[in-house]
Design brief:
The complex is a heterotrimer of chains A (about 375), B (about 375) and C (about 350). Chain A is mainly alpha-helical. Chain A has 14 helices and no strands. In chain C, the strands form five sheets. Chain C has a five-stranded mixed β-sheet, with helices on both faces. A three-stranded parallel β-sheet of chain C has the order 4-1-5. Chain C has a two-stranded antiparallel sheet with strand order 2-3.
């Protein structure tokens, strides 16, 4: 040791360096501004550009949506430019007048309570299954995947035997149809998707190739063509007396489409389960279905839950495409109402779209927040 | 056990085969009984309808349904190609901006991604088309652009360059310039690898690529003329016409897809271990060089596969054209042609086959790329 | 056990696919207790539901007339709104029993689409609507104009033909639905909108400022609109055809909704045969002999339906024109019931 200490070390200072000034304050409001907004000249220019962008875009938007908006009125006169109101904003009066049509379509007014009950039952199911700390989630799953579909069908379509008049699906419309298409897509795509994913990872070649063929085919074509096929070709493929309902055909198309995407998400989850889990389950002499049902799938689905929710978000947005087969979902009802000459103004389209955007944003953003929450929770668990 | 497996598979094959067979028999039966003609004989029949945007010569009277198919397909590819370029530019910018140390920039980019990703594409498309582009001034109040263009609610009309025969020289010069630039680049890299001395050749390359064609252009005597758009009684005539349907579709597709690409880019950059950046900085690389030389090459390997699938999504989503009347493949072929011929099965099958081919070819290329980058990996 | 069940279900599936029921339509309709009618859904005067879901229109009344003849109840109809894109497949596949949706009877549709047209209920022709501000008074002045049109219709083909044969330049802007096409026209995207002239009158009322638009006088095509049925069920086709002629005969004979009960006592043999007082004409259609009486009682004769839905009694105010009775210079000619 001593030998080393004795050797003169040329690159080590012998005298203390001059004191540096203290670093710029990184705390406090000014300090925060300096670090986050004005760190370098280039950064400062960027910040100013952003401020300019916000100043250019946001105030007119707020003026349009709130300050200059027209909240009530009998017809388009209130939303047209007038000397007292030179630049009319959003015509919310139009949305208010048409709101019940946007929500229910042509669903008979006397029966609309059934739709409300359906919405409530669906919300209960989602809350039960969605919150990880809810009690008896196994019962929740039974409710969501078995009880709810039957209940919804009876409620919405009607069952004259118990006094609920039949409401043919061509009267359904608006948010009701959007929710029904999304809900059916979700409820159907998860089980079918799981089966397809298992099929794709199966050791049986026939099963595997059928699953691969289906998944790759559906994922390779646009949803519009799948819907076209369901609406135009399905009736030719089945006997005449089946007469599949128009909405049902679209639902079949959406369910098949969503299943293929779900299958890939589930497959990702399955790939994330360590081999040891399979081997341990086999060692316990579990059959294939018990192994999958009791050991593998619960883990795989848990891991991939955020991706599943993301697929649901995509599905929810895709429900708007049912317009190609002439089904009146929310967006289609807005398009239809826009054609009403009583409300034809330059701002009608913008208002209708703002309303629709708000609706879709609330649902999709809510779902994506939920997915992120679950992800954070899972990664906390994983770090343990 | 083994026999059971085989039996199960055989059973499944029989079920699926039976279903397909049943559907075919049923369809053939239904069609035959209903006296609907079938087969692809319609392909060479005269189409008789007009199309608003055609990249290849097409006329309602002479052209066939087959020609209409190609017109639609080319329009789809045009939208997809332009959309991919714009979405990539916008998406990379926003993805990088989301990771910016500038709080405001990161927040704005984050807001963009959240807003765009959570609103359906169809709604955005209708918004661009009906709320934005239709509120442009009418024909008679057209905005006159500098250099003789017009902008109104019927589209954007620009001067169209008409190339004289001598223009081939310019193309040749451009080709030579690009070739020379590549040679220069390779030489510079070899030299740098040998001597470790960086040679800044960027400006030289730019000069070669831009300067040579310009010189050729001047030498050939400026062989280009412009066809100016003219205001006529009903329409703007002549010039390069950009339909509002086309513009709305490209805008909506690239704005929407950019949000997804931004997420892909962000995830790719985050996937590069922070130690890589720190090591680069410790070696004294500036942050631009760190990004260009260290982070991006590694991130690209993570980015490219999901990026390709976003490109495919964009291509498939271009079929939403049908909602605003842009003549893409679905609108022209699965719309007009299907309605006029009534041959749903054949038309839908062809349409699906086209998209399927695009998808499969792209995934094939993707797999090739993955294999190539995998070899490079050390 | 499970295996056997699966095998059984497959066998059933296959059996199910093998037998295709292309049954007698009238039988099916009677068993179902309801007629299913493919209608327009967006065209005022011809087929349009109001916000309560109650359908009205000329084509709609025709289906109600069939229901009245079969069930003695004009409300036993379910209307399915169809687009030009899916109307023929809906009929071919059996989703609807009759297609009553302002559909043009053309040779190619008659011969290749597996359907038969019953009778021309409305003689129509394609016309143009333009913005008044263009100061155009004839379609021949539209050289270079852009025209909004709905795709997949004969309209789209006629438009191209017309401009081609008059050596005029044309810019078409094609939309999937009439709704989008008319909205685009209204917003100034096109100079002109074209469709059947009956439709033009109805659509004009839905524009922002109906009075700023005019319908040009030229009619550029023959558009005989006819209800269609599936090919191969001749007795059903007869029923649909004679529903129309019964309404026409009633107008020729002066039998109306209000006087039909009195006319039962008429001595005129033609009226007696029409209303089923004499002869077995209803039974030969598979109905009761008072079939035409029911139609007139509930729906009225042809003229009444026309006036109420599209003529002077409606906002559309379309003149009878070609659709006047042959005795009044039109083309509607009731065939004799005997």
């Amino acid at each position: 040791m001593a030998a080393i200490a004795d050797t003169p070390v040329l690159y080590v200072r012998t005298a203390p360096a001059a004191k540096l000034p203290p670093p710029a304050a990184g705390s406090g409001f000014i300090g925060w501004l300096r670090v986050n907004l004005f760190a370098t000249p280039g950064n400062a220019i960027l910040t100013l550009a952003c401020v300019a962008l916000i100043a250019w875009a946001v105030p007119p938007l707020i003026r349009f949506l709130f300050i200059d908006a027209v909240w009530s009125g009998p017809n388009r006169e209130v939303c047209l430019a007038s000397p007292a109101h030179p630049e009319p904003g959003a015509c919310w009066a139009f949305v208010r007048v048409w709101l019940s049509y946007f929500l229910y379509g042509f669903y008979p007014i006397a029966e609309r309570w059934r739709v409300d009950v359906f919405f409530a039952a669906l919300a209960l199911g989602i809350a039960w299954l969605g919150s990880i700390s809810a009690p008896r989630r196994d019962l929740g799953a039974v409710y969501f995947f078995i009880v709810l579909p039957v209940l919804s069908f009876v409620l919405l379509y009607g069952l004259p035997a118990i006094g609920l008049a039949a409401v043919p699906t061509n009267l359904w419309g608006g948010v009701l149809v959007t929710i029904v298409v999304a809900a059916v897509g979700i409820v159907a795509s998860l089980p079918i998707g799981i089966l397809l994913a298992l099929g794709r990872r199966s050791e049986l070649p026939v099963v595997r190739w059928l699953a691969i063929g289906f998944i790759e085919f559906v994922r390779g074509v646009p949803l519009i063509t799948v819907l076209f096929m369901a609406s135009v070709m399905l009736p030719l493929f089945v006997p005449q007396r089946l007469e599949p309902d128009k909405l049902l055909r679209a639902l079949i198309g959406v369910a098949l489409f969503a299943s293929a995407y779900m299958a890939e998400v589930v497959r990702g989850g399955l790939a994330g389960v360590p081999r040891g889990q399979y081997e341990a389950a086999r060692a316990l002499a579990l059959t294939y279905w018990r192994m999958m049902g009791l050991v593998i799938l619960p883990q795989a689905l848990q891991v991939t839950l955020p991706n599943i929710v993301n697929t649901f978000i995509g599905l929810f947005k895709d429900t708007t495409l049912v317009f190609v087969v002439g089904i009146f979902d929310l967006l289609r009802t807005i398009e239809a109402a826009r054609g009403d000459p009583k409300w034809a103004t330059p701002v009608t389209a913008g208002t209708g779209y703002a309303f629709a955007a708000l609706f879709y944003f609330i649902f999709c953003y809510g779902m994506s927040r939920y997915a992120r929450g679950v992800e954070a929770r899972l990664s906390r668990g994983g770090r343990r | 056990m083994r026999a059971g497996r085989i039996a199960l598979q055989a059973l499944l094959a029989v079920i699926v085969g039976g279903l397909i067979y049943g559907a075919f028999i049923n369809a053939a039966d239904n069609l035959a009984r209903a006296h609907i003609s079938s087969g692809f004989g319609f392909w060479n029949n005269s189409a008789g309808f007009d199309i608003s945007q055609t990249l290849i010569p097409y006329s309602a009277g002479i052209s066939t349904f087959g020609r209409a198919f190609w017109v639609g397909l080319l329009n789809t590819l045009l939208v997809a190609a332009l959309g991919v370029v714009l979405a990539t530019l916008l998406g990379f910018t926003i993805g990088v901006a989301r990771l910016s140390r500038n709080w405001l920039v990161a927040r704005l980019a984050g807001g963009y991604v959240e807003l765009i990703r959570n609103v359906p594409l169809l709604l955005q498309l209708l918004f661009w088309y009906n709320a934005v582009l239709k509120s442009l001034p009418e024909l008679r109040d057209s905005i006159v652009l500098p250099l003789g263009g017009f902008l109104n609610n019927r589209g954007l009309f620009l001067p169209r360059p008409v190339f004289a025969p001598g223009f081939g020289a310019v193309g040749a010069a451009l080709f030579v310039g690009i070739l020379a630039a590549i040679v220069l680049h390779v030489w510079a890299r070899r030299r740098r690898e040998r001597t470790a001395a960086p040679i800044p050749v960027g400006w030289w390359m730019a000069a070669l690529i831009v300067g040579l064609p310009l010189a050729g252009f001047a030498l050939a005597g400026f062989p280009v003329a412009f066809e100016w758009p003219q205001m006529s009684r009903f329409n703007v005539i002549g010039g390069l016409e950009i339909l509002p349907e086309f513009a709305a579709l490209v805008l909506a597709l690239s704005v929407y897809t950019a949000a997804f690409i931004a997420e892909v880019v962000r995830a790719g950059i985050l996937a590069v271990a922070p130690g890589q950046t720190e090591a680069a900085q410790a070696l004294g690389l500036r942050s631009g060089a760190t990004l260009r030389l260290i982070v991006v090459p590694q991130a690209m390997r993570v980015i490219v596969p999901p990026l390709t699938s976003q490109y495919l999504n964009l291509t498939k989503n271009s079929s939403l054209a049908v909602a605003i009347g842009y003549p893409d493949l679905v609108q022209v072929f699965a719309g007009s042609v299907l309605n006029i011929t009534g041959q749903a099965v054949e038309v839908i099958a062809i349409t699906m086959a086209v998209y399927l081919t695009i998808s499969l070819v792209t995934s094939l290329l993707m797999n090739l790329y993955a294999r190539m980058t995998a070899i490079v990996e050390r | 056990m499970k295996r056997i069940a699966t095998a059984l279900s497959i066998a059933m599936l296959l059996a199910f696919f093998a037998q295709t029921a292309w049954a007698q339509t009238l039988q099916t309709v009677k068993q179902r207790g309801q007629l299913i009618c493919g209608a327009n859904g967006t065209l005022a005067g011809f087929g349009l539901p109001d916000p309560q879901g109650h359908w009205t229109g000329f084509d709609v009344d025709f289906c109600r007339a069939i229901a009245a003849a079969i069930f003695n109840d004009p409300s036993k109809v379910k209307f399915v709104p169809l687009t030009p894109a899916n109307r023929f497949t809906a009929l071919q596949s059996g989703e609807v029993d009759v297609l009553s949706r302002n559909t043009t009877w053309t040779m190619s549709r008659d011969t290749t689409l597996g359907l038969d047209f019953a009778a021309v209920t409305f003689f129509d022709g394609q016309g143009f609507m333009v913005h008044k501000s263009l100061k155009v008074s004839s379609a021949l002045e539209l050289n270079g104009a852009s025209v909004c049109v709905q795709q997949g219709t004969t309209t789209e083909l006629n438009l191209a033909d017309y401009f081609r044969s008059h050596h005029m330049a044309l810019k078409t802007v094609t939309f999937a639905t009439a709704d989008e096409a008319i909205k685009a026209y209204d917003s100034g995207r096109c100079d002109s909108y074209t469709t059947d002239s009956s439709g033009l009158h109805g659509e004009r009322l839905r524009l922002t400022n109906p009075n700023d638009n005019i319908v040009l006088p030229e009619i550029i095509s023959k558009e005989p609109l006819a209800p269609a049925v599936r090919q191969g069920d001749d007795s059903w086709e007869d029923l649909v055809r004679w529903t129309h002629y019964a309404m026409l005969d009633a107008e020729e004979l002066g039998v109306t909704k209000s006087n039909v009960d009195d006319e039962l006592k008429s001595a005129n043999p033609e009226i007696r045969r029409l209303l089923g007082v004499e002869g077995q004409f209803g039974q030969s259609l598979g109905l009761t002999n008072d079939w035409a009486y029911r139609i007139i009682k509930y729906i009225g004769n042809y003229g009444e339906s026309f006036d109420r839905n599209v003529g002077e009694g409606s906002p559309l105010k379309i003149a009878r024109g070609l659709n006047a009775l042959w005795t009044k210079g039109g083309l509607q000619y009731g065939l004799p019931i005997r």
